[in-house]
């Protein structure tokens, strides 16, 4: 009995404080969590709207899975882009893969038949400033807009204005450019297959 | 009586000034190095970080000061950590709710305020020994001193690496026909270490001249 | 085979490419404070490696078994720091009781480790990177410890020689150490892009 008494004497402050602090965190969280959720949705919507301008809203269309070339599995959320008149104008999904220093996370948009890429944007990346982080810049990203959603090829030199399956690498940042192309190629084929299995797009034949 | 008030006011002023220069947490005590180096690639995240640290330091100093008579010596550090972790969680939630972009830029460095040595050091060295008023002023002095260093360091690095301050262009960039070629290394870890090193050297020179 | 290569890549990447000290600025305080002598640095490194492996594993378990997907998720930081403080305390008591000679050599560093940001930082990064496999979490935590030990030993080696160098008066001590650290991070940038 005296042991319990000793225990309580020593630690009552800790117990009371834990309780009070827990309450404090719970109240703050309850007050702000709706706003935090809204921020997340808004950020994604903002990015997606930048890629598919004619889209009015984005409807969640299921969770898919992408296996990287190394066999690592990662989830991917698929969104259906719907225009003001209710027509499907494209699909958006996220994909990730290793970059130069850290993971690169992309949002990729394609047209409604999954034939052409409508663009990509970076959700998260930690590439070298001044070199690798140029993958976020418009001139590199524009090469993908309208490119065929097949196997893209990275070339060291070429015409970056011409839209085709050849992507011209950023000088000084070949690894980062390559990482983006690899992530897009890898996720593209797998997402397309899974969407066909679900009957979301035609078979293409 | 009047003498007494004067003396207290003197102590307050002394405490405030100490945090800003004489005992500046970064330049003098070499505390809180991790955030100083990690978030100073640009002024905006640095300022956000500084303000979060002021908030956490302020709240934890008050709480620690209020319960200083109840603390059991061997559970002291545990209580400090618990208090700090609580307020850091609140700061993190606040940033996520009202400044989502900043919250993302700072990433794990917001929760890492928990192990920022400045806060636990002030709790131990000041708040658990002094009255409420001194603790509050100490928190403000130390917090503002820390924020100032962060902003100066970030200002230099942002100016060198992007030609901007607070995202406002200062130098005309070579890319758009100006003269300034951005110095990308400054926004990388190298820039952080070397700039801070040179700045500490400069502070040593200045304080030797004024001493 | 694939799993093994993922683990190996993860290990190399956290030791060399994403080294916590050089790229994430974690654990700078002991890096600047303790790393004056190589044997001290090594002792500190070993203590950190031990605690980081233990707490990285424990926080991963707690995160996945208790916190994820429940409303308790908001108390993640509080839980993490308590686990670390507990782990440090436990290790200290254990080592003092069963390995007194070991305690003599690196026990003094143990209380310092609670506020070593490398440990909490690693736990947070494991959560941030979305590591969903226990073995990987263990390997990464251990790798982080090895990376820290390596960084702090290299630095101690350089500093032992710096004592003999003719450094400008105002740069002596912390400033020159920071500048050296900056040059070291440049060297370590060479490893980036190694793992694809």
* Uncertain stretches of chain A: none
SSE string of chain B, helices as H and strands as E: HHHHHHHEEH
Distance between the termini of chain A: 80 Å
Structural class of chain A, by secondary structure, is: alpha+beta
* Oligomer description: heterotrimer
Q: Give the domain tally of chain A.
A: 1
SS content category of chain B: mainly alpha
- Runs of chain B with pLDDT <50, length 5+? none
Kindly estimate the percentage of residues of chain A that lie in beta strands according to DSSP. 25-35%
Kindly state the number of beta strands of chain B: 2
Summarize this entry quickly.
The complex is a heterotrimer of chains A (205), B (211) and C (196). Chain B has 211 residues and is mainly α.
Structure description:
The complex is a heterotrimer of chains A (205), B (211) and C (196). With 205 residues, chain A is an alpha+beta fold. In chain A, 39% of the residues lie in helices and 28% in strands. Chain A has one domain (52-198). Chain A contains three helices and seven strands. Chain B has one domain. Helices cover 69% and strands 2% of the residues of chain B. In chain B, helix 1 packs parallel to helix 7 and helix 3 (43-66) packs parallel to helix 6. The longest helix of chain B has 31 residues, at 132-162. Chain C is mainly alpha-helical. Chain C has one domain. Chain C has ten helices and no strands. In chain C, helix 1 (2-17) runs parallel beside helix 9 (134-162), helix 4 runs parallel beside helix 8 (117-128) and helix 5 packs across helix 6. Classes of the chains: A alpha+beta (205), B mainly alpha (211), C mainly alpha (196). Chains in contact: A-B, A-C, B-C.
Write the layout of secondary structure elements.
The complex is a heterotrimer of chains A (205), B (211) and C (196).
Chain A: H1 2-51, E1 55-67, E2 73-83, E3 88-98, E4 103-111, E5 117-124, H2 138-141, E6 153-155, E7 166-168, H3 174-198
Parallel strand pairs in A: 6-7
Antiparallel strand pairs in A: 1-2, 2-3, 3-4, 4-5
Chain B: H1 2-22, H2 33-38, H3 43-66, H4 76-98, H5 100-106, H6 117-127, H7 132-162, E1 164-165, E2 168-169, H8 189-210
Antiparallel strand pairs in B: 1-2
Helix pairs in contact in B: 1-7, 3-4, 3-6, 3-7, 4-5, 4-6, 6-7
Chain C: H1 2-17, H2 20-24, H3 28-33, H4 38-67, H5 76-98, H6 100-106, H7 110-113, H8 117-128, H9 134-162, H10 174-189
Helix pairs in contact in C: 1-9, 4-5, 4-8, 4-9, 5-6, 5-8, 8-9
